[in-house]
Every structure is written in structure tokens, then in C-alpha cells.
């Protein structure tokens, strides 16, 4: 039975943009599992599987409904042990938890702020209302004010990528010779930026950009199936 992935979209169903949903899509492809996406807008999340979740991603695999990208990856690893591994053992799981915290504390804040108005522009009217109300409450200011000064903060963001940049001097992926779920965690964050905003988060000659290009090429170019924002 084909797995269903509830995937966050805006007004254009062909442009899923959630970093967490992209993590899951990469993980499903890594496991060589057939899946279909269910385009889901912010205001439709509450209706997923009779209220099974408050956020996406969510997958339905037969009778099983699993939410949260990390929990989904753990489920896929356990349910399909004969497929390519996402973690390569308990050490890989521990590494992935560290990478997830690093990504959410280092990458997500700048990307989320810098791309905020671009994301708003991707949404339909109902979702724009929800997005404005929820984000203005979160940031404590008008939506338009949040990305202000992103150009001045860009150098600091790129500097924060130094742990990745120096890692890729030694190996092609975070997982070593090939990708693991840790790679998909970071690739999901950068795919969020790539799909949502034309802002140049990465310098073209950055080893991180070269690694990200390798990730976009994985699984028959799954990441490139959605063009970059123009």
C-alpha cells in the first residue's frame, strides 16, 4: 500500500515548502518506499486524519498514522529494516538528534525571518490571514518588519555554517560517504529557503552549497522536482 504524506503547500500545490515535510520526503525516498503527497494548507492541517495532528508532516502507512519528521524517520527505520538505513545504528540516531537541534537553533531562525514575507506571498488569502496573525503574535511586530536587515545579517548566517563547511573538506555527506537522515535534516531547512525565497542564503562557491546540490540530485532529483523561487 502506498504511503500518504501530508505535505505543506501554499496557493500552488506543486510547491511544497515545509522543511520538516521535505525531511520526510527525502527519508521515504531514501528507504525506496512508494508514497503520494496530500497537498495540505495551513488552514487544512486540523482536518488531517480526523484531527490526528496539529502540524505536518503526517504520514499514513496502512493503519498507522505517524506525525513529526523525526518520529516518522524512526518509524520507517523500524518498520522497514530491510531497506537502506536512515541512521546506520544507534550512534546515527544520536547524531541526528544533535544535528536537528543545531539546525533548528542555528538555521531555522534566520531562514524563517529572512523568508517570512516570501512565504506569506506563497499563500492563499485564508492562509495569509492565519499566517499573519500567528507570526505577528510570535514575533511581536508587523510581518513586514521581521525580515528587515536580512542583508546585514547574511554574513553571520553564512559564518554559522562553518561546522558543515569544514566537515565537507573530509567527506561528501554528513553521514559519510553517503547520506543519512542527518543530511536530510539540514537539506530540508535549505530546501525550505530555496523553494520559498530567491534571497541568496548560500554563496555559490560555498562547500555547503556544493553539498546541497548533491542532496538535490539524490533519489532521481527529488529536491529539484520543485524549482527554486525566482
Automatic annotation (TrEMBL):
Lineage: Bacteria, Pseudomonadati, Pseudomonadota, Alphaproteobacteria, Hyphomicrobiales
Native source species: Chelativorans salis
Short name of any one Pfam family annotated for the protein: GST_C_7
Protein name per the record: Glutathione S-transferase family protein
InterPro entries hit by this protein: Glutathione-S-Trfase_C_sf (IPR036282), Glutathione_S-Trfase_N (IPR004045), GST_UstS-like_C (IPR054416), Thioredoxin-like_sf (IPR036249)
Domain GST N-terminal: 8-84
Gene3D superfamilies listed in its UniProt record: 1.20.1050.10, Glutaredoxin
